[in-house]
Amino acid sequence: xxxxxxxxxxxxxxxxxxxxxxxxxxxxxxxxxxxxxxxxxxxxxxxxxxxxxxxxxxxxxxxxxxxxxxxxxxxxxxxxxxxxxxxxxxxxxxxxxxxxxxxxxxxxxxxxxxxxxxxxxxxxxxxxxxxxxxxxxxxxxxxxxxxxxxxxxxxxxxxxxxxxxxxxxxxxxxxxxxxxxxxxxxxxxxxxxxxxxxxxxxxxxxxxxxxxxxxxxxxxxxxxxxxxxxxxxxxxxxxxxxxxxxxxxxxxxxxxxxxxxxxxxxxxxxxxxxxxxxxxxxxxxxxxxxxxxxxxxxxxxxxxxxxxxxxxxxxxxxxxxxxxxxxxxxxxxxxxxxxxxxxxxxxxxxxxxxxxxxxxxxxxxxxxxxxxxxxxxxxxxxxxxxxxxxxxxxxxxxxxxxxxxxxxxxxxxxxxxxxxxxxxxxxxxxxxxxxxxxxxxxxxxxxxxxxxxxxxxxxxxxxxxxxxxxxxxxxxxxxxxxxxxxxxxxxxxxxxxxxxxxxxxxxxxxxxxxxxxxxxxxxxxxxxxxxxxxxxxxxxxxxxxxxxxxxxxxxxxxxxxxxxxxxxxxxxxxxxxxxxxxxxxxxxxxxxxxxxxxxxxxxxxx
Length: 606
Known about the structure:
Layout: E1 13-17, H1 28-39, E2 50-51, H2 78-99, H3 111-120, H4 125-132, H5 134-146, E3 151-159, H6 161-169, E4 176-185, H7 199-202, E5 213-218, E6 237-241, H8 247-251, H9 253-256, H10 260-271, H11 291-307, H12 312-339, H13 346-349, H14 373-385, H15 398-411, H16 416-434, H17 449-457, H18 472-482, H19 487-499, H20 503-510, H21 516-535, H22 542-563, H23 571-592, H24 599-605
Parallel strand pairs: 1-2, 1-3, 3-4, 4-5, 5-6
Helix pairs in contact: 2-12, 4-5, 11-12, 11-15, 14-16, 14-19, 14-21, 15-16, 16-21, 16-23, 17-19, 17-20, 18-19, 19-21, 20-22, 21-23, 22-23
């Protein structure tokens, strides 16, 4: 038992901070929450201590003078502050994955004016007193703090003005209290009128005692004014909900507490994850990986091999990003396979875990199986060039990535020198296209929307190196399933453009809609793959030369058409000249290094 008479327990306490003047009876929220938790399969709420302080009368005037409670939770500095923010974002990211996409809303035109006018109205006099009368504010905060223990775990739920009070009290809580989660509903905090005592400055960073904060807003709620509160507290996440209520009824706490997402957030804070065995219960099927699954698994393995070489902050950040990426990859493959009536291979199923449970063990991919050298040339060239933790971006040295690639190629039965050659080939390709020696090595990064547009424009191009991929129809289907934005889509797009042949890819590269930067990226990767094949004594890719020649013809034709009348400094002409220069440099490199197609090969092909 602590000094205030609370029995010490590991179970969190639920603190509900109500709004006022909204016509929502204070005693109805508990019934609504209890029923909703039961509906979603959470345990009984009766086992938890619930604190719901009554303070409506205190908002009408002061009983006796009292001092505003001071700030007890200090904000860390420098590296400690960065670590606190990083840890908070990891927790909030896991929660977003559980609940759905963050949606901050845009607000209404003049919404601040409307909210300010509402605060000035007699109906919201109590809220105005809290915002403008320091003595009233102090006694409300003191009343709430007097009801709390000195230590333990707390889950805060704040509605309407209660959300403002919740934010205000966060850094004034006893130092022994850890806020396991905070859920706000129908909050007016985005309005400048509710920036009480420069609250936005006080909470410019997440407090160290707060695990996460999620705000819910209803599109029809006039107090929320069609927006969340992340516009003023950018480190939290907002979720939009929908009810069939309007105006004041849409603002009611019981309406919010009938929403599954709101209740799931509260239930998660109180009880933790409901699914302790999540995806492991489905062990998958003993079926072979298709090309997309194999490529994704290889990318994850490459990322884990890099992670094994990282230390300190770099390891923490990379592990957090990789955790999110792995969960997304598994989920995306599950959704695609479900649509296509395909089972989940056991190698994919074993990687599943509950991403919303930060204590869940994240299974690592097994060591990679053997891939023939010829197929590996494209796969590893793409992996070396692409961001395997997309959409996250974290920079590490070339040496670390190369060592991870050497480990990967050794696992695949190719030998570590193969992995080293992947990076040597990449560096030589960069130097060839830059026209200078000693190029600074950077991750090539993603092609972006320009490259995806090429794939779409050409009707889908075959990822020829991918084991089991059946051609254009399959790659088009895969890109439609995964999109170009995630890790899988990025790999597929890059792999497609590195292997595609024929007039379609030449037309796409020469198209005015394809930037010179995209063309250089495609050519650079293809040149790197050609150099790697030569270093590994593999047969050359004869189609590469043909693609270059056809692309050059198309680009020069467009240049001549525009050059006749356009200004010499026209941006379009500069783009075309850069394309021509990149193609010429590549053809020259191929010729000088014995990669030009042999005459007899050309005759045989004809």
